[in-house]
Design goal:
By secondary structure, the chain is mostly helical. The protein has 2 domains: 33 residues, no CATH class; 171 residues, Orthogonal Bundle (hpI Integrase, Chain A), CATH 1.10.443. Helices cover 44% and strands 7% of the residues. The strands form 2 sheets. It has a 3-stranded antiparallel beta sheet with strand order 1-2-3, with no helix packed on it. A hairpin with an 8-residue loop joins β2 and β3. 25% of the residues are buried.
């Protein structure tokens, strides 16, 4: 290929002739762009059906497809970010560290409310056992001293385990890890026999395509 030829010429001048190559007035071949994988609506249905019905990862997957948000954004949603009255989800610190608003799918409203109730009960249990903290921005910690232990700032999709924060000495519950959701999606795509490379980002592309 053209790029291989350029590499060979550079090697010849640099390591064999041991003299500068100078500039070459030629147009370099660009790398071909890989088209994003997009699922059909039937494939999306099969993918979701292959996920355990009551698992939080299934709700995450449905949110990704229903809103078009990124997996990193979805995992970081906090209780305070869900506005059921307005049917909105506040996405904080998205790409470019900007906040934005996504529409909350009406079909997922009741299950999201149930997820928040689960978070509330688990949070109460954590507090009773000396935990109940979530990592929060330093600026928020300065404004609201107990924000890290406030239910409103707990993650909607929290980690399954509580860990000790070495810096603060607090026992905190972080958000679910995006890579864990990606593994679940990959496994579900295999169960659903979808012959495409499916990741969480595939759902974002599929959301955008199906809007057209």
């Amino acid at each position: 290929t053209q790029n291989q030829a350029f590499s060979a010429i550079r090697f010849l001048y640099r390591h064999v002739l041991e003299q500068p190559l100078g500039s070459l007035d030629a147009v370099r071949a660009s790398k071909p762009k890989r088209l994003p994988t997009v699922l059909s609506k039937d494939e999306v249905r099969r993918l979701i059906a292959a996920l355990p019905e009551n698992a939080s990862h299934r709700l995450i997957v449905e949110l990704l497809y229903g809103t078009g948000m990124r997996i990193s954004e979805c995992c970081k949603i906090r209780v305070v970010d869900l506005d059921f009255d307005r049917g909105q989800i506040i996405i904080r610190g998205g790409k470019g560290n900007k906040d934005r608003v996504a529409m909350l799918p009406q079909s997922l409203e009741e299950r999201l409310k149930a997820q928040v109730e689960f978070v509330r009960l688990r949070h109460e249990h954590d507090v009773e056992h000396g935990a109940g903290y979530a990592p929060v921005p330093t600026s928020l910690e300065h404004k609201r001293h107990n924000a890290a232990r406030d239910l409103r700032w707990q993650f909607v999709f929290g980690s399954a385990v509580v860990r000790l924060d070495q810096d603060t000495g607090r026992r905190i519950r972080r958000h679910a890890h995006p890579s864990a959701v990606d593994r679940t999606v990959k496994q579900a795509s295999e169960v659903a026999r979808i012959n495409k490379r499916v990741t969480c980002h595939t759902l974002r592309h599929s959301f955008a395509t199906h809007l057209l």
